[in-house]
């Protein structure tokens, strides 16, 4: 039976509330009312991502996500897309290291349809899954890989950095898109086994946000999802724990047909969900977020050695997060010049910490990003699922911005000092080659398939 | 079938009662300095969106200085009479704001997004930028160099490269539209602070500008706030600028931009056609959606979901310039990437889809689903202040009435299958499409020539 949880706004939640419920089969449900616009967002997170894949089957979680749109017992072919779009809704699914999410944003009066569709595939995908869908979506995903990664300059940089930063055999060593060879090797039976292992109500969180009647919504959820059996087939995921620092500087030089030299690096940072991760976010923002950051001011404005320079944070809960540096050089500037300047700025920052004004700027930027994310029903639904799946408490989504604002300059300096060090990074250097050399490289890759 | 046995199935539910929703109507007014202001209160939207449109179109750029509008747009956030470039960026970010500026054919646009609690301060900074930009020699020099550094990155990107080639093919060489919006290496290198200031003085003034402000304005005295900020910007009056007509050569032909070793071919197939001032626009939107608006549209049903040649191919119409006298135009195009070995078969299928559409027309069911989607998604699409502000700004830029979008939804709902078919068939005639392929010429030229879709020429990527 569904269990209620009171919907009283917590302090510092911006007036947003959410209630939590659990069906008898283990499906966790989070509801949040907002009647400003007649829309409702449905979001379903399955606790499975590329970190659950095994050697030789990289890319399976994402390929499987595509198969979830190929029909189920009561939904024919592309019916999921057709019905949602025909109802004036929008939808998609995405796969990351740690989860797979599926979402529909509907006009409020079409909410029930989205719940029915999600339940049908959660409970009966294998009734429709066949060899034809498998072969077709394998080709589609391989073309996705070509379009987003293989056919664009620097397109495989993230894949290369990840492989450097997480050691061979680590669950995060490979990225969700997977390798061409593994996509070719995946079988229909692999997909079936994946579904039977990971797609169960007790391995998912469903959130519904927007112009909803919570009681009615919960009744629909019970009606459509309630009879889907749970199971305990999911194996314990491989441990992603790693030492806090890498202990040496890892390095790879890539010679490719790219338009300019580039310096990229991945720093091992604290896990998502910790105060230290928020402090790291602020440190990276001060150093490399926006056009008033230290690295932008140094490399782009003053030294004029870079065309773009910035830091990004990939938050991860089951392994160290990644701080991702990306600098594209200007003109003929050589990488060591950039690298020396980056090291100098990071060392200075670790030494002196952020100024009060830098803290104010970084916190204001992260606050706006949070307001943006929580400003749409779909964004809110996704964040509620994220905190429920990764940290066991959806309410944390509503107070996340407050936690970022509470971090002190000392904490930011501390994390920078401990983590933003040359012996805690994997470095990727791009050196452009002539176009004819690149051609032969590509041919070798083709031959290797 | 054990999977089927365990779950209780229910019939597909019926929709509930739709709740009314209408595209928001803005309130129009002007400040004493002549600045036009559109405002729109959107409850709950804590991040306010402000768009400022300047009547500084690309065709106003002096000969040989393509890109000066872009450099000027970027230079607005590089210092004022009160702040240096670094200080200006810092002050903006201290508000939690983002400010983007870009130049396009109809004019220059500044887009500000900021939490409502810091709107006053951020608007003050934007007003400073418009009223008294520094345009310091060293900052302009840096922006020029930075822009020059960006060009090779754009040329290496298959979709950007394809767009550049299509513009060059479609439009006459003396038309600004034939050349890159942000200039070429040669023209950008010729830009200095003097050129930027001259362009600013000639084309930027409040009397020909419009500001659009959208967000939760509860408790905000917007009149006072605007008076203290954008209201302090002064400038002379100006005559309305004539909009030059758009002409294009859509003789069916193929241009391959050679990228040896490319694992995919980027395709961009286009021509120009009716814009929003033409009565056919709603039918064209509807028909184009049926052709290639989503993965269940005709193109992807074959190219993606049947053949697996692509991650997705889309058909779209995008206004280039619009004018009430009907001289404007939209780019009508089909774009996507297909794997190199299947380039010929994919194009063959694509042409078959177009020919079948012309021969047999759309079905009523296709039309109905398209209307339900295009009209039904409106409340989702316009949830944020930024989305509303952007559409209101487009309307102003295209000389459309403020209630255009609201009326468009009613017109879409009233458009029939026959009209939608005629519009999309006219928009994409099989013998009047310019096809640009960015890919490995050695592998794709012969199969493409065999299709008979026009003369094939090959050009180098750089």
TrEMBL record, chain A:
Residues 28-167 form the Peptidase M16 N-terminal domain. Keywords: Hydrolase, Metalloprotease, Protease, Zinc. InterPro entries: Metalloenz_LuxS/M16 (IPR011249), Pept_M16_N (IPR011765), Peptidase_M16 (IPR050626), Peptidase_M16_C (IPR007863). GO terms for molecular function: metal ion binding; metallopeptidase activity. GO terms for biological process: proteolysis. Residues 186-366 form the Peptidase M16 C-terminal domain. Belongs to the peptidase M16 family. PANTHER family: NARDILYSIN, PROTEIN YHJJ. This is Insulinase family protein.
Automatic annotation (TrEMBL), chain B:
Residues 1-27 are annotated as: Disordered. Coiled coil: none annotated. InterPro entries: Metalloenz_LuxS/M16, MPP/UQCRC_Complex, Pept_M16_N, Peptidase_M16_C. Residues 38-169 form the Peptidase M16 N-terminal domain. SUPFAM superfamilies: LuxS/MPP-like metallohydrolase (SSF63411). Residues 193-374 form the Peptidase M16 C-terminal domain. GO terms for molecular function: metal ion binding. This is Insulinase family protein. The lineage of its organism: Bacteria, Bacillati, Actinomycetota, Actinomycetes, Kitasatosporales.
């Amino acid at each position: 039976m569904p269990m209620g949880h009171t919907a009283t706004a917590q302090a510092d939640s911006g007036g947003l509330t959410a209630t939590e419920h659990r069906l008898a089969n283990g499906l966790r449900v989070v509801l949040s009312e907002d009647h400003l616009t007649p829309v409702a967002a449905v979001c379903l997170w399955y606790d499975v991502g590329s970190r659950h894949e095994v050697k030789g089957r990289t890319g399976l979680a994402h390929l499987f996500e595509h198969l979830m749109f190929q029909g189920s017992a009561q939904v024919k072919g592309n019916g999921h897309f057709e019905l949602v779009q025909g109802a004036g809704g929008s939808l998609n699914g995405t796969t990351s290291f740690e989860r797979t999410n599926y979402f529909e944003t509907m006009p409020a009066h079409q909410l029930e349809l989205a719940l029915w569709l999600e339940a049908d595939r959660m409970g009966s995908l294998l009734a429709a899954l066949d060899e034809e869908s498998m072969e077709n979506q394998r080709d589609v995903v391989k073309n996705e890989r070509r379009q987003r990664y293989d056919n664009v300059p620097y397109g495989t940089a993230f894949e290369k950095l990840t492989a450097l930063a997480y050691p061979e055999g680590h669950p995060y060593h490979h990225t969700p898109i997977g390798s061409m060879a593994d996509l070719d090797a995946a079988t229909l039976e692999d997909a079936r086994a994946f579904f039977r292992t990971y797609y169960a109500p007790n391995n998912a969180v469903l959130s519904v946000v927007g112009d909803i009647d919570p009681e009615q919504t919960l009744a629909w959820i019970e009606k459509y999802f309630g009879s889907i059996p749970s199971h305990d087939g999911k194996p314990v995921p491989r441990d992603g724990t790693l030492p806090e620092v890498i202990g040496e500087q890892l390095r790879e030089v890539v010679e490719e047909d790219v338009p300019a030299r580039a310096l990229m690096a991945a720093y091992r940072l604290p896990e998502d969900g910790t105060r230290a991760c928020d402090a790291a976010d602020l440190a990276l923002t001060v150093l490399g977020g926006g056009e008033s950051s230290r690295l932008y001011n140094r490399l782009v404005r003053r030294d004029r050695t870079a065309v773009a320079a910035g830091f990004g944070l990939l938050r991860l809960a089951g392994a160290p997060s990644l701080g991702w540096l990306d600098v594209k050089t200007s003109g003929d500037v050589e990488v060591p010049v950039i690298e020396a300047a980056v090291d100098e700025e990071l060392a200075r920052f670790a030494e002196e910490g952020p100024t009060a004004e830098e803290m104010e700027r970084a916190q204001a930027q992260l606050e706006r990003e949070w307001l943006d994310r929580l400003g749409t029903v779909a964004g809110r639904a996704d964040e509620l699922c994220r905190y429920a799946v990764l940290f066991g408490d959806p309410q944390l989504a509503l107070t996340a911005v407050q936690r970022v604002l509470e971090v002190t300059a000392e904490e930011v300096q501390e994390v920078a000092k401990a983590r933003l060090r040359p012996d805690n990074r994997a470095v990727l250097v791009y050196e452009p080659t002539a176009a004819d050399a690149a051609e032969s490289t590509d041919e070798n890759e083709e031959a290797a398939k | 079938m054990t999977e089927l046995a365990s779950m209780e199935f229910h019939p597909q539910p019926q929709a509930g009662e739709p709740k009314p929703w209408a595209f928001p109507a803005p309130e129009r007014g002007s400040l004493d300095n002549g600045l036009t202001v559109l405002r729109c209160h959107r409850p709950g939207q804590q991040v306010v969106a402000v768009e400022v449109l300047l009547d500084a179109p690309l065709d106003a750029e002096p000969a040989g200085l393509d890109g000066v509008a872009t450099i000027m747009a970027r230079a607005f956030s590089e210092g004022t009479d009160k702040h240096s470039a670094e200080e200006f960026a810092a002050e903006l970010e201290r508000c939690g704001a983002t400010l983007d500026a870009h130049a396009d054919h109809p004019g220059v646009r500044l887009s500000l997004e900021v939490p409502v609690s810091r709107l006053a301060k951020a608007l003050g900074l934007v007003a400073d930028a418009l009223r008294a930009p520094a345009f310091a020699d060293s900052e302009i020099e840096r922006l020029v160099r930075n822009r020059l550094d960006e060009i090779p990155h754009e040329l290496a990107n298959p979709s950007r490269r394809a767009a550049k080639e299509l513009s060059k093919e479609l439009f006459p060489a003396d038309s600004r539209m034939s050349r890159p919006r942000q200039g070429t290496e040669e023209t950008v290198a010729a830009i200095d602070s003097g050129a930027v200031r001259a362009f600013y003085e000639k084309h930027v003034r409040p009397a020909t500008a419009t500001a659009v402000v959208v967000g939760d304005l509860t408790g905000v005295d917007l009149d006072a706030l605007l008076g203290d900020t954008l209201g302090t910007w002064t400038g002379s009056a100006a005559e309305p600028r004539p909009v030059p007509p758009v002409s294009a050569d859509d003789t069916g032909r193929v241009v391959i931009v050679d990228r040896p070793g490319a694992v995919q071919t980027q395709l961009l197939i286009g021509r120009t056609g009716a814009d929003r001032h033409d009565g056919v626009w709603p039918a064209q939107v509807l028909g184009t959606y049926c052709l290639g608006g989503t993965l269940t549209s005709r193109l992807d049903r074959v190219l993606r979901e049947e053949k697996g040649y692509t991650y997705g191919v889309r058909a779209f119409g995008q206004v280039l310039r619009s004018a009430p006298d009907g001289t404007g135009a939209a780019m009508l195009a089909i774009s996507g990437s297909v794997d190199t070995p299947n380039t010929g078969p994919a194009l063959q299928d694509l042409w078959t889809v177009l020919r079948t559409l012309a021969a047999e027309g759309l079905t009523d069911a296709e039309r109905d689903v398209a209307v339900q989607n295009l009209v039904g998604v409106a409340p989702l699409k316009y949830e944020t202040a930024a989305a509303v502000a952007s559409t209101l700004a487009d309307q102003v830029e295209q000389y459309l009435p403020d209630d255009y979008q609201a009326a468009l939804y009613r017109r879409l709902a009233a458009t029939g299958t026959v009209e939608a078919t005629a519009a999309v068939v006219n928009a994409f005639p099989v013998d009047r499409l310019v096809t640009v392929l960015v890919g490995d010429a050695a592998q794709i030229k012969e199969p493409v020539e065999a299709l008979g879709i026009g003369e094939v020429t090959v050009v180098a990527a750089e």
